[in-house]
Design goal:
The chain is mainly beta and 96 residues long. The chain has one domain: SH3 type barrels. 0% of the residues lie in helices and 44% in strands. It is built from no helices and ten strands. The chain has strands at 2-3, 15-18, 23-26, 31-36, 47-52, 55-56, 60-64, 69-71, 73-77, 83-87.
Length: 96
């Protein structure tokens, strides 16, 4: 994925997890410093940690390696009835 808006615009990374239907966690993007209290019961040390925060799905796009840019995605029904995603810019089918 590539970030299309915000302070991390242009950064690329993989999706670590989908938080809910509207937010995703992208590796290396939207990093914040969190002041964490120590918790001896869980074995967590205190201090300032760097962590990724979720981004809205409208602010990320799929990376197209052919054009080396962010690209929109469409859905096409193949001849055998399967549905396949494709890049809108060049029509290339995405391998999943």
């Amino acid at each position: 994925m590539i970030v299309t808006a915000g302070r991390d615009k242009g950064k690329r990374g993989t999706v670590l997890r989908i938080v809910d239907s509207e937010y995703v966690l992208v590796e290396g993007a939207n990093k914040v410093k969190k002041h964490q209290r120590p918790n001896p019961m869980k074995g967590v040390t205190g201090g300032i940690i760097d962590k990724e925060m979720p981004l809205h799905v409208s602010n990320v796009a799929l990376y197209n390696p052919a054009t080396k840019k962010a690209d929109r995605v469409g859905i096409r029904v193949m001849e055998d009835g399967r549905r396949a995603r494709f890049y809108k810019s060049n029509g290339e089918v995405i391998d999943v």
